[in-house]
């Protein structure tokens, strides 16, 4: 595998004067044109770091805070925040400057993922980004947090949809008598990909596809509000496959739901080459959800009419829009937090989203098939699970302590150093609520390395049924008030925690899980066989601690 990349990462700046050709009928910069510029600049930054051609994989939620007008100057800065083997997160900042007043405002801050295009049949492993400033370190740390949310977003969405179904909200009929039929908002458009729409490899520019999507979505929204909608955000933009010069791209847009002053339009993009076009064999290459506002002549927000889905698929899209809005608001709370503490965002919808994803991640890890047993003692069993470069560990312990007491002791991480030698100190940074706490943990140094530290969210849940386990879920989070320091090597816990099953009134089964990489637990990943004794010793100390403490209650 070839390793490629500039040590300092990509850093690109583009300036453009907004001309009439770039603007809409109001004289405002077209959102589609801005999306093209953003994608082009970010792609240049990715290619500067990778040293090879890159393609757009996805865009996180893009929020537009300000409009740019004809004559003003748009500045787009893009920088690679973090490299993940073959993909990179690129941060994009867009500002607008008025040449007369010299006032500069932020238009948008966005994050995109780009993938290095393999040369021939080989694979490219990207070099890590060299961090030169405090801001570099902060964005590098936040990038892994955003990636975790990005990867878990689809599962959270599906779970929210299932909850809606269980609660009876998801049904085949809709009783909104005054609602506007969504069928009236359906718009279809076809574009032929020509050389100016593609890069030198013939792949269609992601920004060009985004611009076409914005056009068709805007027409769909306008059929509902009978005015000129303004794009405010793009949600869940992800490429599922490539398109090339000569492809016919079919764009289908329809209103999914309205939220008083905003409307969500879903757009699906399918590609056909000549043969596929004749046979009607579509390739689904992209989907996204665009959020629009509409203003009157005074600049006041207009209220959108309620919509009325007419099909089962329309009902699915209707409830999907609600779920996406919940996720969007939760993510916005966390990623836009500028205070020293995350207390405000946590007290809002982000608390439910992150704690839920924390519990769901542990449950998903525990349910994975393919665990291989590596060690068995009288009351301790050890399993491992390998998937790519991720190694997961499961330790099962039989404990003569009631399950509720074991849960109480294991969920309080300030007790952890009493039985786990890998915990040197543990401090509560934030008591979010009775079920959520954020801790700062330090571990002893290993030979030749600095001591590690972690900032973790610990979420606890009691069982709803006797057959269900108590759960203590752990994952790394980022707090502005606890940035990485030179004293420690900041490490990450991808997913860890305990499941505690009651066996009787006086005994329980404790299962510990940890999903790790070699950078988090080198004593485990580097030599699993030699580490079994260390794991067993830690498990024995845990049992001893639980049984000793449990006997005092």
UniProtKB/TrEMBL annotation:
<dbReference type="Pfam" id="PF03061">
    <property type="entry name" value="4HBT"/>
</dbReference>
<dbReference type="InterPro" id="IPR033120">
    <property type="entry name" value="HOTDOG_ACOT"/>
</dbReference>
<dbReference type="InterPro" id="IPR023393">
    <property type="entry name" value="START-like_dom_sf"/>
</dbReference>
<dbReference type="GO" id="GO:0006084">
    <property type="term" value="P:acetyl-CoA metabolic process"/>
</dbReference>
<keyword id="KW-0677">Repeat</keyword>
<keyword id="KW-0719">Serine esterase</keyword>
<protein>
    <recommendedName>
        <fullName>Acetyl-coenzyme A thioesterase</fullName>
        <ecNumber>3.1.2.1</ecNumber>
    </recommendedName>
</protein>
<keyword id="KW-0378">Hydrolase</keyword>
<dbReference type="GO" id="GO:0003986">
    <property type="term" value="F:acetyl-CoA hydrolase activity"/>
</dbReference>
<keyword id="KW-0963">Cytoplasm</keyword>
<feature type="domain" description="START">
    <location>
        <begin position="368"/>
        <end position="516"/>
    </location>
</feature>
<keyword id="KW-0276">Fatty acid metabolism</keyword>
<dbReference type="GO" id="GO:0008289">
    <property type="term" value="F:lipid binding"/>
</dbReference>
<comment type="pathway">
    <text>Lipid metabolism; fatty acid metabolism.</text>
</comment>
<dbReference type="InterPro" id="IPR006683">
    <property type="entry name" value="Thioestr_dom"/>
</dbReference>
<dbReference type="InterPro" id="IPR040170">
    <property type="entry name" value="Cytosol_ACT"/>
</dbReference>
<dbReference type="Pfam" id="PF01852">
    <property type="entry name" value="START"/>
</dbReference>
<comment type="subunit">
    <text>Homodimer or homotetramer.</text>
</comment>
<feature type="domain" description="HotDog ACOT-type">
    <location>
        <begin position="183"/>
        <end position="298"/>
    </location>
</feature>
<dbReference type="GO" id="GO:0052689">
    <property type="term" value="F:carboxylic ester hydrolase activity"/>
</dbReference>
<feature type="domain" description="HotDog ACOT-type">
    <location>
        <begin position="8"/>
        <end position="120"/>
    </location>
</feature>
<keyword id="KW-0443">Lipid metabolism</keyword>
<dbReference type="GO" id="GO:0006631">
    <property type="term" value="P:fatty acid metabolic process"/>
</dbReference>
<comment type="function">
    <text>Catalyzes the hydrolysis of acyl-CoAs into free fatty acids and coenzyme A (CoASH), regulating their respective intracellular levels. Preferentially hydrolyzes acetyl-CoA.</text>
</comment>
<dbReference type="InterPro" id="IPR029069">
    <property type="entry name" value="HotDog_dom_sf"/>
</dbReference>
<dbReference type="InterPro" id="IPR002913">
    <property type="entry name" value="START_lipid-bd_dom"/>
</dbReference>
<dbReference type="GO" id="GO:0005829">
    <property type="term" value="C:cytosol"/>
</dbReference>
């Amino acid at each position: 595998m070839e390793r490629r990349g500039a040590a300092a990462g990509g850093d690109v700046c583009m300036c453009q004067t907004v001309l009439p050709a770039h603007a809409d009928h109001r004289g405002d910069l077209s959102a589609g044109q801005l999306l093209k510029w953003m994608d082009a600049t970010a792609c240049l930054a990715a290619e500067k770091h990778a040293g090879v051609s890159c393609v757009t994989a996805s865009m996180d939620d893009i929020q537009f805070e300000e409009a740019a007008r004809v004559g003003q100057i748009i500045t787009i800065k893009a920088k690679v925040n973090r490299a993940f083997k073959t993909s990179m997160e690129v941060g994009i900042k867009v500002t607008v400057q008025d040449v007369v007043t010299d006032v500069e405002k932020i238009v948008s801050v966005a994050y995109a993922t780009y993938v290095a295009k393999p040369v021939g049949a080989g694979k490219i492993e990207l070099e890590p980004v060299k961090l030169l400033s405090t801001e570099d370190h902060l964005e590098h740390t936040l990038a892994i947090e955003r990636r975790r949310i990005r990867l878990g977003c689809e599962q959270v969405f599906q779970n929210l949809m299932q909850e809606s179904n269980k609660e009876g909200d998801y049904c085949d009929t809709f009783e909104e008598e005054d609602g506007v039929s969504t069928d009236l908002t359906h718009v279809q458009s076809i574009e032929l990909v020509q050389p100016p729409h593609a890069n030198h490899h013939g792949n269609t520019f992601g920004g060009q596809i985004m611009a076409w999507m914005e056009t068709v979505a805007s027409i769909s929204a306008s059929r509902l509000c009978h005015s000129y909608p303004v794009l405010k955000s793009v949600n869940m933009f992800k490429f599922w496959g490539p398109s090339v010069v000569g492809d016919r791209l079919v764009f289908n847009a329809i209103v999914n739901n309205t939220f008083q002053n905003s409307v969500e339009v879903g757009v699906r993009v399918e590609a056909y080459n000549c043969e596929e076009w004749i046979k009607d064999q579509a390739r689904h290459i992209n989907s996204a959800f665009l959020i629009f506002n509409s203003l009157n002549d005074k600049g006041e927000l207009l209220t959108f009419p309620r919509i009325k889905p007419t099909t089962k698929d329309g009902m699915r899209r209707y409830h999907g829009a609600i779920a996406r809005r919940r996720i969007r608001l939760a993510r916005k709370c966390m990623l836009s937090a500028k205070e020293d503490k995350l207390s405000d965002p946590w007290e809002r919808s982000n608390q439910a989203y992150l704690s839920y994803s924390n519990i769901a991640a542990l449950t998903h890890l525990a349910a994975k098939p393919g665990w291989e047993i590596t060690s068995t003692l009288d009351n301790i069993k050890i399993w491992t699970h390998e998937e790519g470069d991720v190694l997961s560990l499961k330790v099962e312990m039989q404990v003569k302590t009631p399950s509720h007491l074991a849960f109480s002791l294991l969920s309080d991480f300030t007790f952890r150093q009493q039985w786990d030698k890998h915990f040197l100190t543990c401090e509560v940074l934030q008591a979010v609520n009775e079920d959520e706490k954020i801790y700062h943990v330090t571990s002893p140094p290993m030979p030749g390395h600095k001591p590690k530290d972690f900032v973790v969210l610990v979420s606890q849940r009691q069982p709803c049924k006797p057959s269900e386990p108590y759960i203590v879920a752990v994952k790394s989070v980022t707090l502005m008030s606890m940035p990485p320091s030179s004293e420690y090597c900041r490490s990450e816990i991808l997913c860890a925690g305990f499941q505690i099953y009651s066996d009787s009134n006086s005994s329980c089964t404790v299962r510990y899980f940890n999903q790790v990489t070699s950078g988090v637990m080198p004593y485990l990943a580097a030599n699993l066989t030699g580490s079994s004794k260390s794991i067993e010793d830690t498990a024995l100390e845990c049992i001893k601690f639980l049984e000793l403490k449990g006997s005092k209650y």
